[in-house]
Amino acid sequence: MTTEERSREKILFVGLSKAGKTSIFEKFFLRSDLRTIENINPTLWYSIKKPNSEFTGSRMTIFDLGGQSHFREQYLQSPALFSKLRAIFFILDVQEPDLYEEVISYFKQVIQLVEENNEDPIYSVFFHKYDPGTQEELKSNLAEGMELMREVFQKRDYVFHVTSIYDETVHREMSFALFRSFPEDAAVQAISSLELEEFIERLAASHESLTSAEREELLIEARNLGNYLGLKIRDRWLKIAIEGPDPQDPIPRLPERLAFKWMDHEEGQKIEITSVVEEGKESDLETEGFVTEEVTKGILSSLGWTTTGKEFNVDKNRKFFKLSLDLDHEIKEKEE
Ligand SMILES: Nc1nc2c(ncn2[C@@H]2O[C@H](COP(=O)(O)OP(=O)(O)OP(=O)(O)O)[C@@H](O)[C@H]2O)c(=O)[nH]1
Ligand SMILES: [Mg+2]
User: Fold this and answer.
1) Which of 20, 104, 200, 218 could form a disulfide with 128 if both were Cys (CB 3.0 to 4.6 A apart)?
2) 317-333 in b/e burial notation, b at 16+ Cβ within 10 A?
3) What is the per-residue pLDDT across 30-67, written as a single tens digit (0 to 9) for each?
């Protein structure tokens, strides 16, 4: 991960006053009870929050932008607020269709500012207050809201979420939206897990001369392990995002001889893996590289990424290899 990428840490919560932005934050990150949430005061100006700082603190910062009209006017005069963006979560109240027009005008102005700033955040649109028990009545409001938002967001990378503080949807949808915003956190953890190091060592130790059938088998085993690690790490990541770090289940440390970097380059993003041979050890770097590549691809695929190209280099003194994979982001659109 480059410094440039690291600094894109900001998630904005945007919406009119009383849409439910602070409520969603409190329910998801603070797990506040309903009584507390029902008595939340309007946000004055905006509030900045760093949830679960131990895990995400160096990066994820949430700006909950109070939605009263005089604040909104100020934000729209402050382009710096709309910089270094990871994601914007737009929240609108499906119980107030009379406000849709105002919502559209605000969201459009925000998008315009963002694009003028050359920012390219992930967009999530929350159709909020779709409470259980009232959904039959709210159906047409929801449909109308979605129709209007499709026009606002058009071809941009957006996902719709339908939520209420009165059921589990806030947890489910926020997890998904956050995961979409920070997929590389999960990927880097998975790829750097100790299980991977053991696996590679075991294979590298037993390879000697691989027949093509054995190589094929190895490839499948490596991919499967990668998929498994990817899913496991995704679950763990979501759990930490919701509940905070679990001391019983610590985040795996990066093995010392493996280094992973997530980077932006001209055509998109890539991951670069360097593996150094341990002092006094022999290693078949080609086989190690091949296994590392397959496991990494497996992990990435279960996290929604595909690879589109690679580069593999072995150091001339055979002390390390460097593998770099070009990435394409393929997390699927999800619409209700
Ligand atoms: N029925 C219903 N009410 C909700 C829901 N979520 C929040 N509310 C209520 O909506 C009101 C406004 O919520 P806030 O979270 O303060 O809204 P906000 O978007 O932060 O408003 P500002 O801070 O003024 O921008 C509160 O009384 C909440 O209890 C929901 O899912 N359903
Ligand atoms: Mg608020």
Assistant:
1) 20
2) eeebbbbbbbbebeeee
3) 778 898 989 999 999 888 877 654 444 346 788 999 99
This prediction has a pTM of 0.64
CA distance 112 to 304: 28
Whether ligand 1 lies within 6 angstroms of the CB of 37 is answered as: yes
Q: Is the C-beta atom of 59 inside 6 A of ligand 1?
A: no
14 lines ligand 1 (CB under 6 A): no
DSSP state string for 8-29: --EEEEE--TTSSHHHHHIIII
As a whole number of angstroms, the distance between CA 49 and CA 62 comes to 5
Domains and CATH numbers, the chain: 3-181 (3.40.50.300), 185-329 (3.30.1380)
* Rounded distance from Cα 178 to ligand 1 centre (Å): 20
Q: What is the pLDDT of residues 66-114, one digit of tens each?
A: 999 999 999 999 988 998 898 999 999 999 999 999 999 999 999 999 9
Whether residue 275 has its Cβ less than 6 Å from ligand 1: no
Which residue out of 12, 17, 22, 23 has the highest number of ligand 1 atoms within 8 Å of its CB and is therefore the one to mutate? 23
21 pocket-lining for ligand 1 (C-beta < 6 Å): yes
Atom of ligand 1 nearest to the CA of 91: 19
Tokens representing residue 45 in the block:
């100006």
